[in-house]
Amino acid sequence: MGARKKISAEKRKEALKTMYFAKLQNVPTSPRKMRLVVDMIRGMEVNRALGVLKFSSKEASARVEKLLRSAIANWEQKNERKAENGELFVTKIYVDCGATLKRMRPARRGRGYRIRKRSNHVTLFVDSKSTNDNQN
């Protein structure tokens, strides 16, 4: 690795040490379906977001709920204290496309139709309200 790349990679790693996040990779649902769930909780307070996800009828909401609990646990572990009620917020959350499995489905008259089985990656950032005020 070149010197400039190494320096920028180290800067990125240092910046991630001050952020509190969780990643969920290779989720076997389409990114479009996952974004519907993610858009419901973006910018919400953590306890309220957990309630919204718990009572959502979407299949992807159970996976995002587990991811949110993981991000909360990461915040608590890095700060060495429990999160209080109303303290943490979902600052950023986004869904990226993952690998697509390509399959063929036999069709009439000797044809074959393509089936694309999509997957996605979800990244969720949490932070306290006081930290957000200081940055803005």
Describe the structure.
- It is a single chain.
- This protein has 136 residues and is α+β, with helices and mostly antiparallel strands.
- The protein has a single domain (22-135), classed as Ribosomal protein L22/L17 (Ribosomal Protein L22, Chain A, Alpha-Beta Complex), CATH 3.90.470.10.
- It is 46% helix and 29% strand.
- The protein has helices at 3-17, 31-41, 46-54, 60-79, 129-135, and strands spanning 20-27, 88-97, 101-106, 112-117, 120-128.
- A three-stranded antiparallel sheet has the order 1-5-2. It has a two-stranded antiparallel ribbon with strand order 3-4.
- Strand 3 and strand 4 form a beta hairpin.
- The protein is flat, with a radius of gyration of 19 Å.
- The relative contact order is 0.21.
- The mean pLDDT is 93.
Q: What's this, in brief?
A:
This protein is α+β, with helices and mostly antiparallel strands and 136 residues long. Helices cover 46% and strands 29% of the residues.
Q: Tags for this entry?
A:
two-stranded antiparallel sheet; 136 residues; alpha+beta; Ribosomal Protein L22, Chain A; 29% strand; 5 helices; 5 strands
The total of helices stands at 5
Class by SSE composition: alpha+beta
- The CATH architecture can be given as Alpha-Beta Complex
Task: Report mean pLDDT, rounded to a whole number.
Answer: 93
Note the overall shape: flat
Distance between the termini: 35 Å
* Percentage of residues assigned to helices: 40-55%
Binned strand content: 25-35%
Mind telling me the CATH class? Alpha Beta
Order of helices and strands: HEHHHEEEEH
The CATH homologous superfamily is named Ribosomal protein L22/L17
Q: Write the CATH fold name.
A: Ribosomal Protein L22, Chain A
Beta strands, count: 5
**What is the count of distinct domains?**
1
